[in-house]
Amino acid sequence: MKEMSPLETLRHSCSHVLATAILRLYPDTQLDIGPPTESGFYYDIDCQKKLDASDLEAIEKEMKKVIKENQKFTRIEATREEAVAKIEKSGQTRYKLGRLDDIPEGEAVSFYQNGEFIDLCAGPHVNYTKKIKAFKLLSIAGAYHRGDENNPQLQRIYGTAFPSAQELEDYLEKLEQAKARDHRKLGKELKLFHIDDAVGSGMILWTPNGSIIRNELQNFISEELRKSGYSQVHTPHIGKLGLYRTSGHFPYYKESQFPPVVEPGTLEQLANEGCSCGELSNQLDEGTVDGYLLKPMNCPMHIKIFDSQPHSYRDLPIRLAEFGTVYRWEQSGELNGMTRVRGFTQDDAHLFCTEEQIAEEIAGCLNLVKLVFKTLGMNDYRVRIGLRDADSNKYVGDAKQWDHAEDALRKAAKNLGVEFTEEQGEAAFYGPKIDFVVKDVIEREWQLGTVQVDYNLPERFELSYIGADNEKHRPVMIHRAPFGSMERFCGVLIEHFAGNFPTWLAPEQVRILPMNDELVDAAKAIESQLSSAKIRCTVDEVADKLGAKIRKAEIAKVPHMIILGKKEAEEGKISVRSRANKVLENITSTEDFITSLLEIIDTKTLPDNQLS
Q: Structural domains in the chain?
Protein backbone atom coordinates (compact mmCIF):
# COMPACT_ATOMS: atom_id res chain seq x y z
CA MET A 1 0.00 0.00 0.00
CA LYS A 2 1.24 3.49 -0.91
CA GLU A 3 2.37 5.48 2.10
CA MET A 4 0.23 8.55 2.80
CA SER A 5 1.71 12.03 2.90
CA PRO A 6 0.93 14.28 5.91
CA LEU A 7 -1.65 16.14 3.79
CA GLU A 8 -3.32 12.89 2.69
CA THR A 9 -3.38 11.75 6.34
CA LEU A 10 -5.06 15.01 7.35
CA ARG A 11 -7.68 14.66 4.61
CA HIS A 12 -8.30 11.00 5.37
CA SER A 13 -8.90 11.95 9.01
CA CYS A 14 -11.33 14.64 7.87
CA SER A 15 -13.31 12.05 5.90
CA HIS A 16 -13.79 10.10 9.16
CA VAL A 17 -14.98 13.28 10.87
CA LEU A 18 -17.43 13.70 7.97
CA ALA A 19 -18.73 10.14 8.50
CA THR A 20 -19.06 10.78 12.25
CA ALA A 21 -21.18 13.88 11.61
CA ILE A 22 -23.36 12.12 9.00
CA LEU A 23 -24.22 9.27 11.38
CA ARG A 24 -25.13 11.79 14.10
CA LEU A 25 -27.48 13.61 11.74
CA TYR A 26 -28.72 10.62 9.69
CA PRO A 27 -28.28 7.51 11.88
CA ASP A 28 -29.73 5.06 9.31
CA THR A 29 -27.05 5.90 6.74
CA GLN A 30 -24.89 3.05 5.42
CA LEU A 31 -21.27 4.00 4.73
CA ASP A 32 -19.05 2.70 1.96
CA ILE A 33 -15.56 4.25 1.65
CA GLY A 34 -13.97 7.62 2.38
CA PRO A 35 -10.44 7.93 0.93
CA PRO A 36 -8.25 11.00 0.48
CA THR A 37 -7.81 12.26 -3.08
CA GLU A 38 -5.30 14.47 -4.85
CA SER A 39 -7.37 17.55 -4.05
CA GLY A 40 -9.27 16.55 -0.90
CA PHE A 41 -11.41 13.62 0.16
CA TYR A 42 -14.85 12.10 -0.28
CA TYR A 43 -17.18 9.66 1.43
CA ASP A 44 -19.68 7.46 -0.40
CA ILE A 45 -22.88 7.04 1.59
CA ASP A 46 -26.23 5.32 1.20
CA CYS A 47 -28.58 7.81 2.84
CA GLN A 48 -32.38 7.66 2.67
CA LYS A 49 -32.51 11.43 2.35
CA LYS A 50 -31.31 13.01 -0.89
CA LEU A 51 -28.86 15.60 0.37
CA ASP A 52 -28.39 19.10 -1.05
CA ALA A 53 -26.28 22.19 -0.41
CA SER A 54 -28.24 23.15 2.72
CA ASP A 55 -27.52 19.72 4.18
CA LEU A 56 -23.81 20.25 3.58
CA GLU A 57 -23.98 23.33 5.79
CA ALA A 58 -25.59 21.29 8.58
CA ILE A 59 -23.00 18.51 8.18
CA GLU A 60 -20.14 21.04 8.27
CA LYS A 61 -21.56 22.50 11.50
CA GLU A 62 -21.66 19.05 13.09
CA MET A 63 -18.12 18.31 11.87
CA LYS A 64 -16.89 21.43 13.66
CA LYS A 65 -18.45 20.07 16.86
CA VAL A 66 -16.62 16.77 16.40
CA ILE A 67 -13.33 18.59 15.84
CA LYS A 68 -13.92 20.78 18.90
CA GLU A 69 -14.46 17.66 21.02
CA ASN A 70 -10.83 16.81 20.19
CA GLN A 71 -11.56 13.13 19.74
CA LYS A 72 -8.58 10.80 19.67
CA PHE A 73 -8.01 8.52 16.66
CA THR A 74 -7.28 5.05 18.00
CA ARG A 75 -6.12 2.11 15.88
CA ILE A 76 -7.70 -1.25 16.73
CA GLU A 77 -6.40 -4.46 15.16
CA ALA A 78 -8.74 -7.42 14.80
CA THR A 79 -8.99 -10.98 13.56
CA ARG A 80 -11.42 -11.70 10.71
CA GLU A 81 -14.02 -12.96 13.17
CA GLU A 82 -13.59 -9.93 15.42
CA ALA A 83 -13.84 -7.63 12.41
CA VAL A 84 -17.14 -9.17 11.32
CA ALA A 85 -18.48 -8.79 14.87
CA LYS A 86 -17.42 -5.12 15.03
CA ILE A 87 -19.05 -4.34 11.68
CA GLU A 88 -22.27 -6.08 12.72
CA LYS A 89 -22.28 -4.23 16.05
CA SER A 90 -21.87 -0.89 14.27
CA GLY A 91 -24.79 -1.73 11.96
CA GLN A 92 -22.67 -0.98 8.88
CA THR A 93 -23.03 -4.38 7.21
CA ARG A 94 -24.35 -3.39 3.76
CA TYR A 95 -21.00 -2.31 2.30
CA LYS A 96 -18.35 -2.77 4.99
CA LEU A 97 -18.54 -6.58 5.00
CA GLY A 98 -17.78 -6.53 1.28
CA ARG A 99 -14.86 -4.17 1.88
CA LEU A 100 -13.58 -6.57 4.55
CA ASP A 101 -13.63 -9.37 1.96
CA ASP A 102 -11.38 -7.21 -0.25
CA ILE A 103 -8.55 -7.46 2.30
CA PRO A 104 -6.32 -10.40 1.29
CA GLU A 105 -6.02 -13.33 3.68
CA GLY A 106 -3.02 -12.92 5.92
CA GLU A 107 -3.07 -9.12 5.71
CA ALA A 108 -3.71 -7.15 8.89
CA VAL A 109 -7.27 -6.02 9.54
CA SER A 110 -7.65 -2.79 11.47
CA PHE A 111 -10.26 -0.24 12.56
CA TYR A 112 -9.92 3.37 13.63
CA GLN A 113 -12.14 4.85 16.29
CA ASN A 114 -12.76 8.49 17.11
CA GLY A 115 -15.42 9.19 19.74
CA GLU A 116 -18.46 7.01 19.10
CA PHE A 117 -17.48 6.33 15.46
CA ILE A 118 -15.55 3.23 14.41
CA ASP A 119 -14.61 2.39 10.83
CA LEU A 120 -12.82 -0.42 9.01
CA CYS A 121 -9.64 1.37 7.95
CA ALA A 122 -5.92 0.79 7.34
CA GLY A 123 -5.11 4.39 8.34
CA PRO A 124 -3.11 6.36 9.12
CA HIS A 125 -4.79 9.32 10.84
CA VAL A 126 -3.79 12.39 12.80
CA ASN A 127 -3.68 11.92 16.58
CA TYR A 128 -6.66 14.12 17.49
CA THR A 129 -9.50 15.76 15.59
CA LYS A 130 -8.28 19.26 16.61
CA LYS A 131 -5.35 18.74 14.22
CA ILE A 132 -7.87 19.45 11.45
CA LYS A 133 -7.60 23.24 11.19
CA ALA A 134 -9.27 24.12 7.89
CA PHE A 135 -11.79 22.15 5.85
CA LYS A 136 -14.71 22.68 3.51
CA LEU A 137 -17.41 20.43 2.04
CA LEU A 138 -17.63 21.18 -1.66
CA SER A 139 -20.33 19.21 -3.44
CA ILE A 140 -22.53 16.13 -3.69
CA ALA A 141 -22.58 13.79 -6.68
CA GLY A 142 -23.92 10.37 -7.57
CA ALA A 143 -21.48 7.45 -7.57
CA TYR A 144 -22.12 3.78 -8.19
CA HIS A 145 -20.86 1.36 -5.55
CA ARG A 146 -17.43 0.15 -6.76
CA GLY A 147 -17.91 2.27 -9.91
CA ASP A 148 -20.25 -0.33 -11.44
CA GLU A 149 -23.54 1.03 -12.80
CA ASN A 150 -25.15 -2.34 -12.07
CA ASN A 151 -24.62 -1.65 -8.36
CA PRO A 152 -26.62 0.75 -6.14
CA GLN A 153 -26.06 4.45 -6.71
CA LEU A 154 -24.67 6.18 -3.64
CA GLN A 155 -24.25 9.84 -2.73
CA ARG A 156 -20.65 11.01 -2.79
CA ILE A 157 -19.83 13.99 -0.60
CA TYR A 158 -16.67 15.79 -1.69
CA GLY A 159 -14.61 17.95 0.61
CA THR A 160 -11.10 19.26 1.10
CA ALA A 161 -8.83 20.08 4.01
CA PHE A 162 -5.56 21.98 4.46
CA PRO A 163 -3.14 22.61 7.31
CA SER A 164 -4.07 26.32 7.42
CA ALA A 165 -7.01 28.60 6.72
CA GLN A 166 -4.94 30.59 4.19
CA GLU A 167 -4.16 27.49 2.14
CA LEU A 168 -7.85 26.58 2.14
CA GLU A 169 -8.80 30.11 1.07
CA ASP A 170 -6.27 30.02 -1.78
CA TYR A 171 -7.61 26.67 -2.94
CA LEU A 172 -11.24 27.83 -2.84
CA GLU A 173 -10.27 30.88 -4.91
CA LYS A 174 -8.77 28.55 -7.53
CA LEU A 175 -11.98 26.54 -7.50
CA GLU A 176 -13.95 29.68 -8.29
CA GLN A 177 -11.58 30.37 -11.19
CA ALA A 178 -12.08 26.79 -12.35
CA LYS A 179 -15.87 27.24 -12.30
CA ALA A 180 -15.57 30.37 -14.42
CA ARG A 181 -13.32 28.45 -16.84
CA ASP A 182 -15.41 25.25 -16.92
CA HIS A 183 -15.33 24.07 -20.53
CA ARG A 184 -18.91 22.78 -20.27
CA LYS A 185 -20.15 26.27 -19.33
CA LEU A 186 -17.94 28.14 -21.82
CA GLY A 187 -18.55 25.55 -24.52
CA LYS A 188 -22.26 26.32 -24.34
CA GLU A 189 -21.83 30.10 -24.11
CA LEU A 190 -19.38 30.23 -27.02
CA LYS A 191 -21.29 27.60 -29.04
CA LEU A 192 -18.29 25.29 -29.35
CA PHE A 193 -19.85 21.86 -28.85
CA HIS A 194 -23.08 20.13 -27.92
CA ILE A 195 -23.99 16.86 -26.18
CA ASP A 196 -27.48 15.56 -26.91
CA ASP A 197 -29.23 12.66 -25.18
CA ALA A 198 -30.79 11.69 -28.50
CA VAL A 199 -27.28 11.12 -29.88
CA GLY A 200 -25.84 9.54 -26.74
CA SER A 201 -23.96 10.42 -23.58
CA GLY A 202 -20.27 11.03 -24.10
CA MET A 203 -20.70 11.72 -27.82
CA ILE A 204 -19.52 15.19 -28.87
CA LEU A 205 -21.28 17.19 -31.57
CA TRP A 206 -18.77 19.74 -32.83
CA THR A 207 -20.60 22.95 -33.75
CA PRO A 208 -19.25 25.32 -36.45
CA ASN A 209 -17.30 27.39 -33.89
CA GLY A 210 -15.77 24.33 -32.23
CA SER A 211 -15.00 22.77 -35.59
CA ILE A 212 -12.90 25.81 -36.51
CA ILE A 213 -10.72 25.30 -33.42
CA ARG A 214 -10.44 21.58 -34.12
CA ASN A 215 -9.56 22.15 -37.79
CA GLU A 216 -6.93 24.77 -36.94
CA LEU A 217 -5.28 22.37 -34.48
CA GLN A 218 -5.40 19.56 -37.04
CA ASN A 219 -3.92 21.83 -39.73
CA PHE A 220 -1.15 22.91 -37.36
CA ILE A 221 -0.12 19.38 -36.41
CA SER A 222 -0.58 18.09 -39.98
CA GLU A 223 1.93 20.65 -41.27
CA GLU A 224 4.43 19.56 -38.61
CA LEU A 225 3.86 15.92 -39.57
CA ARG A 226 4.48 16.75 -43.22
CA LYS A 227 7.79 18.36 -42.30
CA SER A 228 8.73 15.27 -40.29
CA GLY A 229 8.03 12.73 -43.01
CA TYR A 230 4.71 11.28 -41.84
CA SER A 231 2.16 9.80 -44.23
CA GLN A 232 -1.53 10.42 -43.55
CA VAL A 233 -3.87 7.41 -43.60
CA HIS A 234 -7.58 6.79 -43.02
CA THR A 235 -9.16 3.68 -41.50
CA PRO A 236 -12.73 2.45 -40.81
CA HIS A 237 -14.58 2.97 -37.54
CA ILE A 238 -15.29 -0.74 -37.17
CA GLY A 239 -13.23 -3.89 -37.65
CA LYS A 240 -13.46 -7.65 -37.25
CA LEU A 241 -13.10 -9.09 -33.77
CA GLY A 242 -10.25 -11.33 -34.92
CA LEU A 243 -8.13 -8.23 -35.49
CA TYR A 244 -8.54 -7.22 -31.85
CA ARG A 245 -8.08 -10.76 -30.58
CA THR A 246 -4.68 -10.76 -32.24
CA SER A 247 -3.79 -7.34 -30.80
CA GLY A 248 -4.94 -8.38 -27.33
CA HIS A 249 -7.61 -5.69 -26.96
CA PHE A 250 -10.38 -8.30 -27.04
CA PRO A 251 -11.59 -9.97 -24.92
CA TYR A 252 -9.12 -8.84 -22.22
CA TYR A 253 -10.38 -5.24 -22.20
CA LYS A 254 -13.95 -5.85 -23.32
CA GLU A 255 -15.37 -4.19 -20.17
CA SER A 256 -14.14 -0.85 -21.51
CA GLN A 257 -15.37 -1.48 -25.06
CA PHE A 258 -18.73 -1.31 -26.76
CA PRO A 259 -20.33 -4.77 -27.19
CA PRO A 260 -19.40 -6.61 -30.40
CA VAL A 261 -21.73 -6.52 -33.38
CA VAL A 262 -22.46 -9.91 -35.00
CA GLU A 263 -23.18 -10.41 -38.68
CA PRO A 264 -26.85 -10.10 -39.78
CA GLY A 265 -28.80 -13.32 -39.19
CA THR A 266 -26.30 -14.73 -36.68
CA LEU A 267 -28.41 -13.92 -33.61
CA GLU A 268 -31.53 -15.52 -35.08
CA GLN A 269 -29.58 -18.63 -36.07
CA LEU A 270 -28.01 -18.98 -32.61
CA ALA A 271 -31.36 -18.36 -30.90
CA ASN A 272 -32.92 -21.15 -32.97
CA GLU A 273 -30.09 -23.39 -31.79
CA GLY A 274 -30.93 -22.50 -28.16
CA CYS A 275 -27.86 -20.34 -27.55
CA SER A 276 -28.21 -18.00 -24.54
CA CYS A 277 -26.77 -14.50 -24.30
CA GLY A 278 -24.07 -15.80 -21.93
CA GLU A 279 -23.14 -18.58 -24.36
CA LEU A 280 -22.99 -16.07 -27.23
CA SER A 281 -20.65 -13.89 -25.18
CA ASN A 282 -18.39 -16.87 -24.49
CA GLN A 283 -18.33 -17.84 -28.16
CA LEU A 284 -17.40 -14.28 -29.15
CA ASP A 285 -14.59 -14.34 -26.58
CA GLU A 286 -13.32 -17.69 -27.80
CA GLY A 287 -13.64 -16.86 -31.49
CA THR A 288 -16.09 -19.64 -32.39
CA VAL A 289 -18.54 -16.89 -33.42
CA ASP A 290 -17.15 -13.88 -35.27
CA GLY A 291 -18.31 -10.31 -35.18
CA TYR A 292 -17.21 -6.71 -35.48
CA LEU A 293 -16.03 -4.16 -32.94
CA LEU A 294 -16.22 -0.38 -32.88
CA LYS A 295 -12.50 0.24 -32.89
CA PRO A 296 -11.07 1.02 -29.44
CA MET A 297 -7.61 1.70 -30.93
CA ASN A 298 -6.21 2.69 -34.33
CA CYS A 299 -2.97 0.71 -34.06
CA PRO A 300 -4.17 -2.70 -35.36
CA MET A 301 -5.42 -1.08 -38.57
CA HIS A 302 -2.18 0.87 -39.03
CA ILE A 303 -0.35 -2.41 -38.56
CA LYS A 304 -2.37 -3.90 -41.39
CA ILE A 305 -1.48 -0.95 -43.63
CA PHE A 306 2.22 -1.49 -42.86
CA ASP A 307 1.85 -5.22 -43.48
CA SER A 308 0.02 -4.75 -46.78
CA GLN A 309 3.31 -4.61 -48.69
CA PRO A 310 6.90 -5.80 -48.20
CA HIS A 311 9.48 -3.46 -46.68
CA SER A 312 13.25 -3.19 -46.76
CA TYR A 313 15.36 -1.69 -43.99
CA ARG A 314 15.91 1.18 -46.42
CA ASP A 315 12.16 2.03 -46.17
CA LEU A 316 12.27 2.46 -42.41
CA PRO A 317 11.21 4.35 -40.45
CA ILE A 318 7.67 4.36 -41.79
CA ARG A 319 5.47 6.90 -40.02
CA LEU A 320 1.68 6.56 -40.40
CA ALA A 321 -0.58 9.27 -38.97
CA GLU A 322 -4.36 9.54 -38.68
CA PHE A 323 -6.98 11.63 -36.96
CA GLY A 324 -8.81 8.43 -36.11
CA THR A 325 -12.01 8.24 -34.08
CA VAL A 326 -12.13 5.44 -31.50
CA TYR A 327 -14.79 4.29 -29.05
CA ARG A 328 -14.57 3.26 -25.39
CA TRP A 329 -17.37 2.32 -23.02
CA GLU A 330 -16.92 4.72 -20.11
CA GLN A 331 -19.21 4.38 -17.09
CA SER A 332 -21.88 7.10 -17.18
CA GLY A 333 -20.75 8.46 -13.81
CA GLU A 334 -17.25 9.07 -15.23
CA LEU A 335 -18.33 11.07 -18.28
CA ASN A 336 -17.40 14.74 -18.14
CA GLY A 337 -18.08 17.12 -21.01
CA MET A 338 -15.27 16.85 -23.57
CA THR A 339 -12.63 15.56 -21.17
CA ARG A 340 -14.16 12.10 -20.60
CA VAL A 341 -16.18 10.80 -23.53
CA ARG A 342 -17.16 7.57 -25.30
CA GLY A 343 -16.19 8.57 -28.83
CA PHE A 344 -13.04 10.58 -29.42
CA THR A 345 -10.57 11.39 -32.18
CA GLN A 346 -6.90 10.75 -31.52
CA ASP A 347 -4.13 12.60 -33.35
CA ASP A 348 -2.65 9.16 -33.62
CA ALA A 349 0.52 7.96 -35.31
CA HIS A 350 2.47 4.72 -35.42
CA LEU A 351 6.11 4.54 -36.39
CA PHE A 352 7.70 1.32 -37.59
CA CYS A 353 11.47 1.35 -37.21
CA THR A 354 14.59 -0.70 -36.55
CA GLU A 355 16.04 -1.06 -33.04
CA GLU A 356 18.87 1.28 -34.04
CA GLN A 357 16.34 3.98 -34.96
CA ILE A 358 14.36 3.90 -31.69
CA ALA A 359 16.25 6.67 -29.86
CA GLU A 360 16.06 9.12 -32.77
CA GLU A 361 12.37 8.41 -33.41
CA ILE A 362 11.42 8.82 -29.75
CA ALA A 363 13.34 12.11 -29.66
CA GLY A 364 11.39 13.30 -32.72
CA CYS A 365 8.08 12.38 -31.07
CA LEU A 366 8.98 14.11 -27.83
CA ASN A 367 10.13 17.25 -29.65
CA LEU A 368 6.79 17.36 -31.47
CA VAL A 369 4.93 17.23 -28.16
CA LYS A 370 7.17 19.99 -26.76
CA LEU A 371 6.44 22.14 -29.82
CA VAL A 372 2.69 21.74 -29.32
CA PHE A 373 2.91 22.81 -25.68
CA LYS A 374 5.23 25.73 -26.42
CA THR A 375 2.95 27.02 -29.19
CA LEU A 376 -0.04 26.97 -26.83
CA GLY A 377 1.78 28.46 -23.85
CA MET A 378 1.63 25.24 -21.83
CA ASN A 379 5.20 25.49 -20.62
CA ASP A 380 4.71 24.06 -17.13
CA TYR A 381 4.69 20.30 -17.49
CA ARG A 382 6.38 17.18 -16.18
CA VAL A 383 7.11 13.82 -17.73
CA ARG A 384 5.88 10.53 -16.31
CA ILE A 385 7.40 7.23 -17.45
CA GLY A 386 4.92 4.36 -17.11
CA LEU A 387 6.70 1.06 -16.47
CA ARG A 388 5.39 -2.47 -16.12
CA ASP A 389 4.80 -4.11 -12.76
CA ALA A 390 6.85 -7.31 -12.85
CA ASP A 391 4.40 -8.97 -10.44
CA SER A 392 1.36 -8.33 -12.65
CA ASN A 393 0.05 -10.60 -15.41
CA LYS A 394 -1.48 -7.60 -17.21
CA TYR A 395 1.50 -7.19 -19.54
CA VAL A 396 2.29 -9.23 -22.63
CA GLY A 397 5.59 -9.98 -24.32
CA ASP A 398 9.19 -10.85 -23.60
CA ALA A 399 10.78 -9.41 -20.43
CA LYS A 400 14.05 -8.63 -22.24
CA GLN A 401 12.22 -6.60 -24.87
CA TRP A 402 10.40 -4.74 -22.12
CA ASP A 403 13.76 -3.89 -20.57
CA HIS A 404 15.01 -2.51 -23.91
CA ALA A 405 11.88 -0.40 -24.38
CA GLU A 406 11.92 0.98 -20.83
CA ASP A 407 15.63 1.83 -21.11
CA ALA A 408 15.00 3.69 -24.39
CA LEU A 409 12.31 5.83 -22.78
CA ARG A 410 14.48 6.60 -19.74
CA LYS A 411 17.29 7.84 -21.99
CA ALA A 412 14.89 9.93 -24.06
CA ALA A 413 13.37 11.50 -20.93
CA LYS A 414 16.82 12.41 -19.62
CA ASN A 415 17.65 14.12 -22.89
CA LEU A 416 14.47 16.22 -22.67
CA GLY A 417 15.94 18.19 -19.80
CA VAL A 418 12.68 18.31 -17.80
CA GLU A 419 11.59 16.77 -14.53
CA PHE A 420 10.43 13.16 -14.86
CA THR A 421 9.25 10.37 -12.60
CA GLU A 422 8.96 6.62 -13.05
CA GLU A 423 5.71 4.89 -12.07
CA GLN A 424 5.48 1.12 -11.82
CA GLY A 425 2.32 -0.47 -13.18
CA GLU A 426 1.39 2.50 -15.42
CA ALA A 427 2.58 1.01 -18.73
CA ALA A 428 0.18 0.03 -21.51
CA PHE A 429 -0.34 -3.72 -21.70
CA TYR A 430 1.92 -3.92 -24.76
CA GLY A 431 4.71 -1.49 -23.81
CA PRO A 432 6.06 1.29 -21.56
CA LYS A 433 5.11 4.89 -22.21
CA ILE A 434 5.97 8.52 -21.58
CA ASP A 435 3.05 10.75 -20.60
CA PHE A 436 3.19 14.54 -20.49
CA VAL A 437 1.37 15.99 -17.48
CA VAL A 438 0.63 19.68 -18.09
CA LYS A 439 -0.26 22.39 -15.58
CA ASP A 440 -2.76 24.96 -16.81
CA VAL A 441 -2.79 28.63 -15.77
CA ILE A 442 -4.54 27.85 -12.48
CA GLU A 443 -2.10 25.00 -11.77
CA ARG A 444 -4.39 22.03 -12.41
CA GLU A 445 -2.68 19.03 -13.95
CA TRP A 446 -3.86 17.32 -17.14
CA GLN A 447 -2.38 14.24 -18.77
CA LEU A 448 -2.13 15.05 -22.47
CA GLY A 449 0.53 13.91 -24.97
CA THR A 450 1.88 10.34 -24.90
CA VAL A 451 4.67 8.32 -26.55
CA GLN A 452 4.89 4.51 -26.25
CA VAL A 453 7.49 1.95 -27.32
CA ASP A 454 6.08 -1.42 -28.40
CA TYR A 455 7.90 -4.64 -29.21
CA ASN A 456 4.80 -6.77 -28.66
CA LEU A 457 2.25 -5.87 -31.32
CA PRO A 458 4.79 -6.38 -34.14
CA GLU A 459 5.39 -9.82 -32.60
CA ARG A 460 1.70 -10.64 -32.27
CA PHE A 461 1.04 -9.64 -35.89
CA GLU A 462 4.30 -11.24 -37.14
CA LEU A 463 5.47 -8.04 -38.85
CA SER A 464 8.76 -8.07 -40.68
CA TYR A 465 11.12 -6.14 -42.93
CA ILE A 466 14.11 -7.34 -44.94
CA GLY A 467 17.40 -6.30 -43.36
CA ALA A 468 20.78 -5.57 -44.94
CA ASP A 469 21.54 -9.30 -44.51
CA ASN A 470 18.54 -10.21 -46.72
CA GLU A 471 16.91 -11.87 -43.68
CA LYS A 472 13.56 -11.06 -42.09
CA HIS A 473 13.65 -8.86 -38.99
CA ARG A 474 10.95 -7.67 -36.63
CA PRO A 475 10.33 -3.89 -36.59
CA VAL A 476 9.76 -1.95 -33.38
CA MET A 477 6.57 0.09 -33.16
CA ILE A 478 6.23 3.52 -31.54
CA HIS A 479 2.78 4.92 -30.69
CA ARG A 480 2.46 8.66 -30.23
CA ALA A 481 -0.30 11.27 -29.85
CA PRO A 482 0.78 14.87 -29.02
CA PHE A 483 -2.78 16.06 -28.30
CA GLY A 484 -3.99 12.73 -26.91
CA SER A 485 -7.52 13.25 -28.19
CA MET A 486 -9.03 16.24 -29.95
CA GLU A 487 -12.01 16.29 -27.57
CA ARG A 488 -10.03 16.20 -24.33
CA PHE A 489 -7.35 18.56 -25.65
CA CYS A 490 -9.91 21.14 -26.76
CA GLY A 491 -11.73 20.85 -23.44
CA VAL A 492 -8.46 21.56 -21.63
CA LEU A 493 -7.66 24.46 -23.99
CA ILE A 494 -11.05 26.06 -23.36
CA GLU A 495 -10.28 26.07 -19.63
CA HIS A 496 -6.61 27.01 -20.05
CA PHE A 497 -7.48 30.11 -22.10
CA ALA A 498 -10.84 30.67 -20.34
CA GLY A 499 -12.29 30.84 -23.87
CA ASN A 500 -9.93 33.71 -24.82
CA PHE A 501 -8.25 31.77 -27.62
CA PRO A 502 -5.21 33.15 -29.42
CA THR A 503 -6.20 34.81 -32.67
CA TRP A 504 -5.11 31.86 -34.86
CA LEU A 505 -7.54 29.56 -33.01
CA ALA A 506 -10.41 31.98 -32.36
CA PRO A 507 -13.56 30.99 -34.29
CA GLU A 508 -14.26 34.68 -34.92
CA GLN A 509 -11.05 36.66 -35.21
CA VAL A 510 -12.45 40.13 -35.90
CA ARG A 511 -15.85 41.74 -35.40
CA ILE A 512 -16.61 45.00 -37.23
CA LEU A 513 -18.79 47.42 -35.28
CA PRO A 514 -20.39 50.18 -37.42
CA MET A 515 -21.57 53.03 -35.20
CA ASN A 516 -24.85 53.46 -37.10
CA ASP A 517 -26.91 51.82 -39.86
CA GLU A 518 -25.52 54.16 -42.53
CA LEU A 519 -22.05 52.63 -42.03
CA VAL A 520 -23.09 48.98 -42.49
CA ASP A 521 -22.19 48.96 -46.21
CA ALA A 522 -18.73 50.38 -45.46
CA ALA A 523 -18.34 47.74 -42.71
CA LYS A 524 -19.24 45.00 -45.18
CA ALA A 525 -16.64 46.28 -47.60
CA ILE A 526 -14.00 45.97 -44.86
CA GLU A 527 -15.36 42.49 -44.05
CA SER A 528 -14.83 41.51 -47.68
CA GLN A 529 -11.20 42.70 -47.53
CA LEU A 530 -10.52 40.69 -44.37
CA SER A 531 -12.30 37.59 -45.69
CA SER A 532 -10.21 37.74 -48.88
CA ALA A 533 -7.13 37.61 -46.63
CA LYS A 534 -8.65 34.47 -44.98
CA ILE A 535 -9.38 36.29 -41.73
CA ARG A 536 -12.55 35.13 -39.98
CA CYS A 537 -14.73 38.17 -39.40
CA THR A 538 -18.34 39.33 -39.07
CA VAL A 539 -20.24 42.61 -39.05
CA ASP A 540 -22.54 43.50 -36.14
CA GLU A 541 -25.46 44.93 -38.10
CA VAL A 542 -27.82 45.17 -35.13
CA ALA A 543 -29.11 48.70 -34.49
CA ASP A 544 -27.60 49.17 -31.05
CA LYS A 545 -25.34 51.55 -29.15
CA LEU A 546 -21.60 51.08 -29.63
CA GLY A 547 -21.08 50.22 -25.96
CA ALA A 548 -23.60 47.37 -26.22
CA LYS A 549 -21.92 46.07 -29.37
CA ILE A 550 -18.51 46.12 -27.69
CA ARG A 551 -19.92 44.28 -24.69
CA LYS A 552 -21.41 41.56 -26.92
CA ALA A 553 -18.07 41.09 -28.68
CA GLU A 554 -16.30 40.86 -25.34
CA ILE A 555 -18.74 38.22 -24.09
CA ALA A 556 -18.16 36.29 -27.32
CA LYS A 557 -14.41 36.64 -26.60
CA VAL A 558 -13.61 38.02 -30.04
CA PRO A 559 -9.89 38.97 -30.02
CA HIS A 560 -10.21 42.12 -32.18
CA MET A 561 -12.91 44.69 -32.93
CA ILE A 562 -12.87 47.29 -35.66
CA ILE A 563 -14.74 50.43 -34.58
CA LEU A 564 -16.09 52.17 -37.66
CA GLY A 565 -17.36 55.73 -37.32
CA LYS A 566 -18.32 58.31 -39.94
CA LYS A 567 -14.92 60.02 -39.80
CA GLU A 568 -13.01 56.72 -40.24
CA ALA A 569 -15.24 55.73 -43.16
CA GLU A 570 -14.71 59.08 -44.90
CA GLU A 571 -10.92 58.98 -44.43
CA GLY A 572 -10.55 55.26 -45.20
CA LYS A 573 -9.14 54.60 -41.72
CA ILE A 574 -10.14 52.26 -38.91
CA SER A 575 -9.81 52.12 -35.13
CA VAL A 576 -9.06 48.74 -33.63
CA ARG A 577 -9.97 47.63 -30.15
CA SER A 578 -8.11 44.59 -28.90
CA ARG A 579 -9.23 42.11 -26.24
CA ALA A 580 -7.24 44.19 -23.74
CA ASN A 581 -9.60 47.10 -24.46
CA LYS A 582 -6.97 49.41 -25.96
CA VAL A 583 -7.41 51.47 -29.11
CA LEU A 584 -4.44 51.05 -31.43
CA GLU A 585 -3.65 54.49 -32.77
CA ASN A 586 -0.81 53.20 -34.99
CA ILE A 587 -3.28 51.36 -37.23
CA THR A 588 -4.33 53.82 -39.94
CA SER A 589 -5.70 51.62 -42.68
CA THR A 590 -7.40 48.30 -43.22
CA GLU A 591 -4.37 47.10 -45.19
CA ASP A 592 -2.00 47.85 -42.28
CA PHE A 593 -4.32 46.06 -39.87
CA ILE A 594 -4.51 43.01 -42.12
CA THR A 595 -0.72 42.88 -42.38
CA SER A 596 -0.31 43.06 -38.58
CA LEU A 597 -3.05 40.55 -37.94
CA LEU A 598 -1.74 38.01 -40.45
CA GLU A 599 1.64 38.13 -38.74
CA ILE A 600 -0.05 37.38 -35.40
CA ILE A 601 -1.92 34.48 -36.98
CA ASP A 602 1.08 33.08 -38.83
CA THR A 603 3.33 33.21 -35.75
CA LYS A 604 0.55 31.86 -33.52
CA THR A 605 1.13 34.65 -31.03
CA LEU A 606 -0.37 34.00 -27.60
CA PRO A 607 -3.08 36.31 -26.17
CA ASP A 608 -0.79 38.33 -23.86
CA ASN A 609 1.38 39.36 -26.81
CA GLN A 610 -1.33 40.20 -29.29
CA LEU A 611 -2.19 43.72 -30.50
CA SER A 612 -2.80 45.14 -27.02
A: 6-173 (3.30.980.10), 205-237+295-497 (3.30.930.10), 250-291 (no CATH), 510-609 (3.40.50.800)
